[in-house]
Amino acid sequence: MGDMAHAPQQRRRFLNSNATQRLLAFASLIGLIVFYSLASPNFFKFENMVAILIATAVTGILAVAVTFIIITAGIDLSIGTLMTFCAVIAGVFITMWHGPVIVGVLAAILMGGLVGLISGTFVSRLKIPPFIATLGMMYVAKGLSLIISGLKPVYFNDTPSFALIAMGSVTGAIIPGFNIPNAVIIFFAVALLSAFLLNRTILGRYTFAMGSNEEAVRLSGVNVDRWKTIVYMVGGLICGVAGVVIAARLNSAQPSLGQGYELDAIAAAVIGGTSLSGGEGTILGTVIGAFVMSVLVNGLRILSVPQEWQTVMTGVIVIFAVYADILRRKRA
Amino acid sequence: MRRKRLVTILIVVTAVLMLGGFAAAQAIYIPVISKGFQHQFWQAVRLGAEKAARDYKVVITFEGPENESMVDKQLDMLQTDLAKNPSAICFAALDSKAAIPLLQEAKKRKIPIIGFDSGVDSDIPVTTAATDNVAAAALAADKMAQLIGGSGKVGVIIHDQTSRTGIDRGTGFLGQMKKKYPNIQIIGPQYGGGDQLKSTDLAKAMIQANPDIKGFFGGNEGSIIGVLNAVKELNLVGKVVVIGYDSGKQQLDAIRSGAEAGAITQDPIGIGYKAVEAAVKAIRGQPVPKNIDTGFHWFDKTNIDDPAIAAVLYN
Amino acid sequence: MADPLVVMEGIEKSFPGVHALGNCRYDLNPGEVHALVGENGAGKSTLMKILAGVYQRDSGRIIYKGREVNIPNPRAAQHLGISIIHQELNLMPHLTAGQNIFIGREPRQAVKLFLDEKRMNELARELFDNLHMDLDPRTKIRDLAVAKQQMVEIAKALSFNAEVLIMDEPTAALNTTEIEELFRIIRQLRDRGVGVAYISHRLEELKQISDRITVMRDGKYVDTRRTSEVEIGEIISMMVGRTLYETARNLKDTSGHEVVLSVAHLQQGRTIKDVSFEARAGEILGFAGLMGAGRTEVARAVFGADPVQSGEITVQGRRVNIRKPSDAVRHGIGYLSEDRKRYGLALGMDVEANIVMATMTRFLGLLGIIRRAETRSTAQKFVSLLSIKTPGLGQITKFLSGGNQQKVVVGKWLVRDCNILFFDEPTRGIDVGAKSEIYKLLNDLAEQGKAIVMISSELPEILRMSHRIVVMCEGRITGELTAAEATQEKIMRLATQRESVVKTERIAAAGKGA
Predict the structure, then answer these.
(1) Is residue B315 included in any domain, yes or no?
(2) Nearest C-alpha of chain A: how many angstroms from C302?
(3) Does the structure show a pLDDT above 50 at A227?
(4) B197 lies in which domain range?
């Protein structure tokens, strides 16, 4: 066998690595930024960078949540409306019941975890396909948001500190003028923590393992049902964080918002190299993917490209990204 | 290699798309941010805005979120447009309160804000170009009372109870009924989110519960098309008086065929035109009134083709 | 003799509608390899899965190290020291070798949530070193060849301090070199006192590796014999319950037959190097070689399933251009994949639908409605012609035996009037009884004037069936033999004749062969 067979195998290993896809997404992100910066003086301004960051934050957090689930070869369509549901829960605690802000925030996040736990149980124990289970949950969460809120937005006007969760700036307090909204900081914190969970913990290991070959994990004596439920629960918790962030940003819980956000999040994850067939994906990739989408749209807006074309370009980018992934696999 | 080619294609396509953008660089730039985009009504507003842009030689962009629940996407648009150093901004807020921080930033930077359609619920806008929806809905109530003979049950379906238009049309119609026609019993109002299907279901349920219902009022295009579907599906065409709001092809056809008695039309083209016009005046430091009424009209089978009416209708 | 490690007695097992095992027994001593053989469906895997805790027995006793035990799940089996390597490898391709070995019992940090990856890789390396395996625990499974993946499975099994190791068809996907390596490891384990339960179809292998052989048939125990005291023919007759007719047949000289397919200078990267050959009407052309020699690649290329850089294909004297499988089919070339389930059959559909699958357009009536009467009669014709054993045309192919599935695929191509048929490993995974039926079918097809190209890794099969034999090695054709001159040794020598090896240095191929 010797050297002849060895060389191609090494090459394959290099091309196969997740890093390639991340690099590709990262390169397109840098490409976009450079291109837009040259095309318009208004693009690479602190103000616009903040606009991009904040436009990415919520979708980004949701994308991180769904990355966990996609890696298990599942899908979660409920993340968008679940986010809204959690936002409404925060509103219930804070505005309707006049509870402390912190209680409302915790309640929202825990509710996300609870709903995730239910979805996860449907998927793992009742064996309902994730697509269906979470599709159902999408409607349930949407309906409950409307019911609880009484079809009206719940405003947080009595508690000005709540809005600061997203729109205040910790960095601005430390470095005057460097006003990065907290929503963005929360996004990065969630991403960091998630990356750590995925790469360093037992939860992350089983997340990848289940997505790679669930039966093998089961035969290895791992309680697959329990871990899968936990993964959906973690996704739900992160959606809860997204709910708090969007509520704080809008200073209100908008009960009819949320549907459609799950698709943006899934697209971001896929652009970032997460494989819909499971077993592959990184948080860094997902974060980059989310930025690719928001930078693309922001730049087109800065260039005053008509909105209908912005939508077309987003679609093109998603297809390009997935095609690039296929090319990579083919070459490998 | 292949990757390089992808990037090249991307750059070329984008470059083609932004040719218009470069032209905008020097002129007066006014972004118009509406509440929606695909909806016929908003496209008519866009037509008016573009006409004003040509007349006053300014550059505009017209944007709006994909549906009227995407409050945060609208804020993203507003924020991006602020980064482009516009001379003024025309804005129809989905949720006024959520937009306040950004509007305050605009005020700080002395960028005049022109509200249009439902406007912005705050004192920041220099002016608001909008239909007087309360008066318009009251006119619809008058017509309804006249057509059903002053008594009986009337169902009301409004798109929502949070937006300015929803509130005004609801209170305008209901208020007039209460004040002038005590013998008319109102069923609802119910809220269908402006969604045709949902409004259809609502209308059907209302008819099932009240078989003797004599008339229906729908608060916007989506709501009234829902009502029309329900009436058609239950074979009640001609037996129930249907009065709508706005235009759109389906509604116009219904009015021509007699399925719908008539409708109130705002003047969406006028809204767009007057909003941009007001922005230009504000930039030039000319005085503008606090409220600009963009007008409304009653139209039915008899006057639908009058040039004056036809001009404000859209398909 | 030491006390037996495992004794299974009176094991009964029923699945809904099937009495899978009846009064079965098996025992295993420390430090021996005890093979379990039988036709497909004889119950070998079921019996071993009961031992491994995958299935539960209905009745019977399992005595492990002198104690009667209950094995409710795989985890319990592992705790006892019983590990199984399944036929389909159970690995996670996206994870590394080390991660796969320690899945479910990862070394953790002081805080239990966190993994200790470094320690895990050290442990994995120790395991590999112990077995003299050359493997980096940080390599992802999908980057490893099947043989190496299997090594990982073995290492994983042993990491449970297994005293009993069950291997279900471990050599199915390995080439000769790799099998040698596997046997080396098995012997090493045996010498350490591990009891190895070895399930295999390849009877020749058992002679090399096993100490005892237990034969099963139709869910029943037949007999246990010492390997050294039993002949292969005897085992086969125990398996099939009858003496198998296995004398070599008289192969006709087909050199005068018309050449119907001629392939010249086929070239595709490293996998196909200047391949030229001819196939004649009425003959079986055997393609021999080791796994990965490029035989399947050649067949797929001729069939248009994979692109080629250059090469000429002539069918019945006419130069043809084949870019996709539909072109090949139009010229009467059919390809029967080695992986019937993936490429050959719509498993969820019935026999009739599968037989007419490739010729559907021929049966379309007005408005594209399928003329069922005709499809039914066509399917019926081929079911009897090929003697496909099925309860009816409506039988879902998933429930047919491997041999009969193979026949359905053949039927599909015959309906298409294919005169040139490529059979890729036609008897893989098919039990001994059904094999001879497939052989008969191939012979009949050749008699009828079809040109058959048969790719096979089993030398006895090649020798028995082929009129001519083409041998490939590393993408090249290294030789062509007539039936008369071919021997196992000659084929093996050609199959291992690497390009890089200078003639004088030619390494004598391992005399044993496959």
Answers:
(1) no
(2) 21
(3) yes
(4) 133-266
